[in-house]
Amino acid sequence: MISVQKVSSDSFVINIKPNSSLTGYARPIFILSIALVCLGIATVFYFVGATLVLPFAGLEISILLFAFYLNFRWSSKREKIFLSKDKVLVEKGIHKAEYRWEEFRTFTSFNVTKDINKVLKLSFRSKGKDVEVGTFLNEKDKKTLREEISKIIDMLNDLN
After folding, report:
1. What are the boundaries of each domain within the chain?
2. pTM of the entire structure?
3. Which of 10, 41, 45, 57 sits CB 3.0–4.6 Å from 85 for a disulfide?
4. Which of 122, 81, 128 is closest to 100 using CA atoms?
């Protein structure tokens, strides 16, 4: 998901986050419903005489919880791109900025390339260092991000 905010006449903020179908209270409700069904069936089998089904159902639920934890952590990624007349700032992180890259806009170029699999790769380049943005986006969102950044750069160039 991409959102663009105009902070002032010469500065913009682009917020990028992965698409997520489960958010908020839907996440624990979904996990709880799967766990209750699985443990309910395992309990029935336990009382019928298949005693090993219950421990393996517990193991299955714990693996499922770990997989959902990893997925929810991945979907919490955030990137912020600050574009102004003078500077370009890229911040990446999960709940706070864990990575920060800042350069003067005059020395920075916006690169759009395709890799071997024809997947778009968007990056800012300055002083021989590439900072890739939107790596977790799908192709449609990457094209939208490319268009938005290009529009903003054109608007900022017209201010000079």
Report:
1. 2-20+76-158, 26-74
2. 0.80
3. 10
4. 81
